Sequence to fold (313 residues):
Amino acid sequence: MKKMAFVGIPMFLLLLVGCGQTSEKPGETVTTNETEVAETTQTSDSSTVESSTTNTTTEASTTAETNASTSIVESETTETSTATTNMTDMSSAVATTSTETASSESTSSNEATQTDAMTQLQTNFPNIAFPTNVPHTQGNVVNVASGGDENHLSVLYFDMATPMILNKSELNFETPIARFQQTIYPSETEAKIAVELRVDMSGQPVDLGYNITGYQQGAAGSSYIAWKEGNWNLLVRANNLEQQDPVAMAKQVVEYLEGAMLPAPQHIGQITIDMAGSEYETNQVTWQVNNVVYSINHQDAMAALQMAVSTQQ
Fold:
């Protein structure tokens, strides 16, 4: 629509210039009037005075019209130049990463009417089941940045006070709290390998409740406990130096999953919780369906599980 507006300005200028001209050009008017003055002089002195007055009036009128037309042209040209400069400034103000540019351009025009970034994301990728629940600070909102396509899509979530549209450039300077990824592999076998199983059932048996047994072992200042639920393999790591208890965390996870339904892996799924970490990559839920691998990360262990559960809602 902006291009049409600027094309229209030159046409309008041509009309204005046309309206500013008389049926006779200024030079021709002077010549004709000088001829009339010469002929009238031969007739009578009174006629000469009358023709001179008419000639002067005509020249003044023509000059005024010419100046007015010139003023209009200059005014319109100035407005066109100003609008073009403003448009250039607006274009240069947009700054996004190379993987986010296309998506940012497609959503910038919707800034006035589309403020829910998660809804925008779902609209852009209607066939993907994104998490609908991303736990964050109460009173804040979740902003979103995405990159890639359905073959390899990565989505970052930000806990912020101010809502922003999808892929807002300011998000480049923020720290994410969570991530969702979808990757399509050439084969189902490659997808299963990509899940990266981390499970060892050779440790000391521990009752986690609900008829589930975990296996605990320690190594290099850390304690681990692993167990299985259906096609899911679960692992909790705790830092001994910080006196963290992996058994308590494992029991909390088991209790939560008794009342919540995770997405069903076709063959294999892995949940890894690191109690010593604080980054969004710390806790991960990954599962395979055919040749597709889905992955969810959150800086909080239980929040990562809640995100995974919400992909089914």
User: Anything to note?
Assistant: The two ends are 39 Å apart (CA to CA).
